[in-house]
């Protein structure tokens, strides 16, 4: 306490303060100016990058501009925040060194603390990393219909940690990005409806395929639904011999998420066309033999049950 009241103590303190101010303050000012300039340069650079990416997405007709904008804003925001954290961390370390504080133990403590947090929150970190690359690679977008870990539905929200999916029944499913083992996007760029059309064995396969092609062409020329079809219907031909039907496979390519509406209308029109041409769509039946004479009778399931009751 006595030393604090002496003139020599205060004169030394004033002298050391002046010396520190002369030697260190310019460095601090330069450090602050450099940090400010670097932050503005980073912000400007990322802003320019964002504008370039948005312009390219808008000009690219094959890309959904709205979804591309969401993805670009998310990624650029993450990059900007990460760079800011790195610059501020470096600035604080350099600032502490200016005040003659040994930053070595602090860095070591921070490393140990970060390692402990890393072990405890490795699942959280895995979710964020998986979500980042999912957005970066454009694997899935809001509004897509996807199958995630065996569950299908409409993607309502994509975040860095989770994906929200709503199925046909309205049930909401939330998946952690790090735990997604399988992801199937059913509406990426284009979609398709595959048809397995069964007809009776007595029918002319070539005639059936011609009718299927004509119905597809008629649907493509429809003023309302035709714009959803991006390619003429593909008739692959006779795919297999079923128990009671010939299976003809076809595919109709549509705009994303429009395959179900288009497929239902195609089936409706195909049924009408088959009825007009007397093309038989098979149903469960059996063949009954009477003595030596063979009379093939096609019976429905209800008719078969009635026949058994009569025999009993």
Your description of this structure?
The protein is an alpha+beta fold and 312 residues long. The protein folds into three domains: 3-120, Helix Hairpins; 140-185, SH3 type barrels; 191-276, Alpha-Beta Plaits. The protein is built from seven helices and ten strands. The chain has helices at residues 7-59, 65-98, 103-120, 122-136, 205-220, 259-276, 301-311, and strands spanning 145-148, 151-158, 162-166, 172-176, 183-185, 191-199, 234-241, 246-254, 288-290, 293-295. Strands 4-3-2-1-5 form a five-stranded antiparallel β-sheet. A three-stranded antiparallel β-sheet has the order 6-8-7, covered by helices on one side. Helix 5 (205-220) crosses helix 6. The longest helix has 53 residues, at 7-59.
Would you summarize the structure shown here?
The strands form three sheets. Strands 4-3-2-1-5 form a five-stranded antiparallel beta sheet.
Shape: elongated
Q: Looking across the biggest beta sheet, what order are the strands in?
A: 4-3-2-1-5
Architecture of the largest domain, according to CATH? Orthogonal Bundle
H and E string: HHHHEEEEEEHEEHEEH
Number of strands: 10
Low-confidence blocks of residues? 293-299
Structural domains: how many: 3
Q: Bin the strand percentage.
A: 15-25%
Assembly status: single chain
Give helix % range: 40-55%
Number of helices: 7
